[in-house]
Amino acid sequence: MAEAGRRVLMGRIVGLYGVQGWLKIESWSEPRTRIFDYQPWQLSTAPGEVVEVSGIKGRPQGKGLICHLPNVDTREQAAALVGKDIHVARELLPPPGKDEYYWVDLEGLEVVTTEGVALGRVSHLFATGANDVVVVRDGERERLVPFIQGSYVRSVDLEAGRMVVDWDPEF
């Protein structure tokens, strides 16, 4: 199960739009405008400090997205937010479909082979175009396992915190 309080990176503030505090954002939700449905946003303002922002208005503009945050009404106020990551609480996202997973839910899972050999824990995932790749670390090694269910990934048990893979421990 997803941990309470877990955050999911959904986008980034990438620039300014106009003089009335509007911002250009990059969204990693699908479709990209769905980022506006997940509120409040959590923005890191300083190391270890997170500010929650609700009431965000946004829309497509050209090839990108723009948004306006409450109480950010000048270009100078908006400029202080450029470069900030946009996170949302994991529980705001809709439940994944059958045999679908949010990457954030897979991070930290124990990874074992079909023979029961422990390989480490899921550090993170990344997309390659052909398929996603699970990065498994055990303190000594890093293994890259293709996230192809049925072939390399045999099972994922979020409740037990375990992923079983068909992978040579020496590779």
Mean pLDDT, to the nearest integer, reads 94
Please identify the structural class as seen in this structure: mainly beta
Radius of gyration, taken over Cα atoms and rounded to an integer in Å:
19 Å
> Can you give the helix content as a percent range?
under 10%
Distance between the terminal alpha carbons, to the nearest Å?
A: 30 Å
Beta content comes to: over 45%
Please count the helical segments. 2
Instruction: Record the strand order, biggest sheet.
Output: 4-3-7-1-2-6-5
Largest sheet: 7 strands, antiparallel
- Spell out the helices and strands N to C: EEEEEEHEHEEEEEE
Low-confidence stretches: none
Total number of strands: 13
Shape: elongated
Which properties best describe this structure?
171 residues; mainly beta; 2 helices; 7-stranded antiparallel sheet; 6-stranded mixed sheet; elongated; single chain; 13 strands
